[in-house]
Specification:
The complex is a heterodimer. Chain A is of the alpha+beta class. In chain A, about 45% of the residues lie in helices and about 20% in strands. Chain A is elongated, with a radius of gyration of 33 Å. By secondary structure, chain B is mostly helical. Chain B has three helices and no strands. The chains are: A alpha+beta, B mainly alpha.
């Protein structure tokens, strides 16, 4: 057995079995088959573009049966005509150029697929095929067979067609177009040369400029007027009010200037201002199209399950859409499938993994007649269950009826700019009225001029740009180091937190690995070999873990093997017998380690000892808690039992409060209770059981081992490998806020300079046209350079 | 100097044409995915080569499920 070889297809280590085929090594038959498919269709180019791009194809027995049900298929299909059907699949595995290449060459694998197009950032593929020649189910199976399993969830069924909002690009385009043209047209008059032709044509030029700025004011700047009226209605003096005021005054004054031939007006500044503001808006709108921050249980749940119908005393299987499940329906749940409703187990070997919905770290075995909760994943063979509730009424899904999920946090949150703009607006209005009053006494003809000039020059363009550019840039830096945030507000909220709450299972521990200790009499080599061979035949997750840990032994065929579901395994080889399983099964009634997961072993009916499974904590947990505990209040809310309490107390700092056996709703209530004491809370969780807490907290961060798979609704998704650096992100968010504050000073200096020209009545279009872009651009450069410099620390790690 | 009217008209017409082209391209979704096309254009060489080779082997390969 070679150890050092990696699979030619998926790049995994071929540690146990190596399959040699076509002078290449493969880790499993699945990978070999995919390679075979590709090479027989002249598609081996797949492997030239990127080394080992593939994934192991999954077992799909009966998985896509529901796609044959036309009512379900119709909901998924985008377009259907006589001979063409278009479907869009979300495929999480899309990750490299090879993926794009193979998925866009599907027609070579299957001639009835006419075209396929990949949208790489969104990880979707749009397939056009002939529905008379190949069914939707066959397309899905083809994709799965080559290792690109489409992810179809209940969400795809319930939501309508997504509409892409492109209005910001239109607005930006219009503003940019107008800005450029107005600049050209106003250029001659900047120098006030009274040439003959300039004098003659300036009226035409002015009216053209007026024409160009009309769509800018009426359409491109629309959002600012809407936001300003909203602010006024709710008595909040937000930043949009001085902006909207500035735009209106600019437009009215410019129009009257050209109307009465007083001057050229400020159309260049007006269009430039709107253009820069929209640019800031555009920049802050960084979206991670392959991530979703709004998910609820529907994107985790399957779209349909198999129902068992009894007809004339004969069992028949059909597919039923999840929402249509009624109480009393018999459902068939296959290996790796999700239980969609609260149900009672009728028969089958149920081994349910609840880690994602409740936070329990170990899977549980269930006997027939036991109640099963929705959201659990079956880890064994197929089971039959009977629904006792509908999907919406299930224990897990009820969490989503909590009002917290309807609340839009962006409305309740006042950001830094809005806080400042409150004073800013008042001060500007004061200055404007004082200056006007002064000029009414001195020279009434200039009073109106000064009043409008103050409002124009004080239009807080630079102030409004600082925040989107600084935070938008930081958002990108975070994204590059695998911390994906929903929007820029999250960074600001992150900088204000004083309490951090962690979930245990899946957040500070990993789901994949367990630490195993052995306690008891040492096993002889023969016994260990027997144990390993016994475990080899078992599919129980604990057996698998234990099997991986034990040293390599040769494969022996056992004489006798019996698995007692939910209890343990019994095996015999020649004279030696072995029993592996729960304490009760082995006959050991020692109550020690009751809470921890243990596997007991006895050979020839004499007790040997037990393996204890500990959670495996993520790298750097100890260090992270130590650093965080210096500045923040920390607690751990776990849905698991208190088996790990002692160990956690040992490794973590003393002042951390630990809570166990917390239901999802308990977590939500706990956060609510500490928020009442004016605490700003960050919740770090991973599963559906944290969904309520994540929504309630000020900043909800989901930890994910693989960011493309499901994570609950949250403000940000942190890649699990970066977990130990959580502290650096908080620090970076704090320094970003400092940068923004310092940039406000710069912006005020520009405003003071502008105000000097304005109140003295010297504001000419050329000064405005220079000052406005200068302040904006220098502001953008200032915050971008500083945030890049601060962000460098994050990316260096 | 009446030529200035002609020039102005031409310049504005050209500008407006480009602007309309931009709006149409946005509407057609050209800016929705700005990443994949940059990779797709690199595949061209292989795509030209593939169909020729494939024509001989295509009829035999319909064993896909």
């Amino acid at each position: 057995m070679t150890i050092a070889s990696t699979c030619y297809h998926c790049g995994n280590d071929c540690d146990k079995f190596v399959i040699d085929f076509d002078q290449k090594t493969f880790c499993c038959n699945g990978c070999k088959t995919v390679y075979d498919i590709f090479s027989s269709h002249d598609l081996s180019c797949y492997y030239d573009l990127q080394a080992a791009p593939g994934s192991i194809p999954k077992e799909i027995k009966g998985k896509f049966d529901y796609l044959n049900t036309s009512s379900i298929a119709q909901k998924l299909i985008e377009f259907c005509d006589k001979n063409t059907t278009i479907i869009t699949f979300y495929i999480p595995h899309i990750h490299c150029s090879s993926c794009i290449w193979i998925l866009e060459n599907l027609h070579k694998l299957q001639p009835h697929i006419t075209a396929s197009q990949v949208d790489f950032p969104k990880k979707i593929v749009r397939i056009t095929f002939n529905q008379h020649q190949i069914s939707l189910k066959e397309v899905a199976i083809l994709l799965t067979n080559i290792g690109y399993e489409p992810y179809i969830s209940l969400e795809d069924y319930t939501e309508g067609k997504k509409k892409i909002d492109r209005s910001l690009i239109y607005k930006l385009g219009i503003a940019g177009f107008a800005f450029g043209n107005v600049m050209f047209l106003s250029f001659p008059e900047y120098f006030e040369v009274s040439e003959y032709w300039l004098e003659k044509y300036k009226y035409l030029f002015r009216w053209l400029m007026f024409g160009f700025s009309l769509p800018v004011v009426l359409y491109a700047a629309k959002d600012y007027f809407i936001a300003a009226t909203k602010g006024l209605r709710t008595n909040i003096l937000n930043i949009d009010i001085p902006i909207a005021l500035g735009i209106i005054v600019l437009f009215l004054r410019s129009t009257s200037e050209i109307l009465f031939d007083w001057g050229t007006g400020f159309f260049d500044s007006l269009t430039g201002l709107v253009f820069f503001l929209l640019l800031g808006k555009f920049f802050q709108q960084k979206t991670y199209s392959f991530l979703s921050f709004e998910r609820d249980y529907t994107s985790y749940f399957p779209i349909a399950v198999t129902r068992i119908v009894f007809e004339n005393n004969k069992k028949r299987e059909d597919t039923i859409q999840i929402n249509a499940i009624k109480k009393g329906d018999r459902l068939l749940i296959r290996n790796e499938e999700l239980i969609p409703v609260d149900a009672i187990l009728i028969h089958g070997n149920a081994q349910i993994d609840y880690s994602f919905v409740t936070g329990e770290s170990e899977s549980v075995a269930k006997k027939s007649g036991d109640q099963l909760y929705a959201g659990g994943r079956q880890l064994y063979d197929a089971i039959e269950i009977e629904a006792i509730k509908s999907v919406e009424q299930s224990y897990l899904t009820q969490l989503w009826s909590n009002t917290i999920f309807d609340k839009d946090r962006s409305v309740t949150f006042t950001n830094l700019t809005d806080k400042i703009s409150k004073y800013f607006t008042i001060v500007i209005l004061c200055i404007a009225s004082i200056a006007t009053a002064f000029w009414i006494l001195m020279d009434p003809s200039k009073a109106m001029n000064v009043f409008t000039a103050v409002l124009i020059i004080a239009c807080p363009c630079a102030l409004a740009l600082a925040r989107p550019f600084a935070l938008g840039n930081m958002l990108r830096i975070f994204g590059k180091s695998k911390f994906y945030l929903k929007n820029i507000d999250v960074i600001e909220r992150l900088s204000t937190i004083n309490t951090v709450i962690f979930d245990k299972t899946g957040t500070i521990t990993t789901n994949k690995k367990n630490d195993v200790d052995y306690d008891g009499l040492a096993l002889t080599r023969a016994e260990e070999s027997l144990l390993k061979n016994t475990l080899r035949s078992s599919n129980h997750p604990l057996s698998r873990t234990l099997y991986e840990i034990l040293a390599e032994h040769e494969i022996i065929t056992l004489d006798q093997y019996q698995e007692h579901i939910g209890k343990g395994i019994e095996a015999k080889l020649k004279e030696n017998s072995i029993k592996v399983g729960s304490a009760k099964f082995i006959g050991n009634n020692d109550p020690k380690n009751e809470l921890n997961t243990t596997v007991h072993i006895s050979t020839n009916d004499s007790y040997k000892g037990h393996f204890i499974f500990h959670n495996h904590y993520r790298k750097g947990v100890k260090k992270l808690f130590k650093i965080l505990s210096e500045t923040y209040n920390l607690s751990i809310l776990s849905g698991d039992n208190s088996g790990e309490k002692k160990y956690l107390q040992q490794i973590l700092p003393k002042n951390i409060s630990l809570f166990f056996n917390q239901k999802p709703i308990d977590k939500l209530e706990y956060i609510k209770s500490i928020q009442k004491d004016q605490n700003k809370v960050m919740m770090v969780g991973d599963g559906l059981n944290d969904a309520g807490a994540l929504a309630q907290s000020d900043v909800g961060i989901a930890i994910s081992e693989n960011v493309t798979v499901f994570s609950p609704a949250c403000d940000g998704i942190l890649d699990a490998t970066r977990f130990e650096h959580l502290h650096t992100y908080i620090l970076a968010s704090k320094s970003t806020m400092k940068i923004i504050k310092s940039s406000f000073i710069l912006s005020f200096l520009y405003n003071l300079l502008g105000l000097y020209f304005a109140v003295t009545g010297q504001l000419s279009p050329i000064i405005a046209a220079i000052l406005m872009p200068l302040s904006s651009i220098s502001m953008v450069v200032y915050v971008t350079v500083l945030t890049n410099w601060k962000g460098r620390k994050i990316s260096l790690q | 100097m009446g030529v200035i009217y002609v020039l102005l008209t031409i310049s504005i017409i050209v500008a407006v044409i480009f602007f309309i082209a931009f709006i149409i391209s946005v509407k057609n979704g050209q800016y929705d995915d700005t990443y994949t096309p940059s990779i797709r254009m690199l595949f061209d060489d292989e795509l030209v080569k593939e169909p020729k080779e494939k024509s001989s082997s295509a009829p035999t390969n319909n064993n896909q499920s």
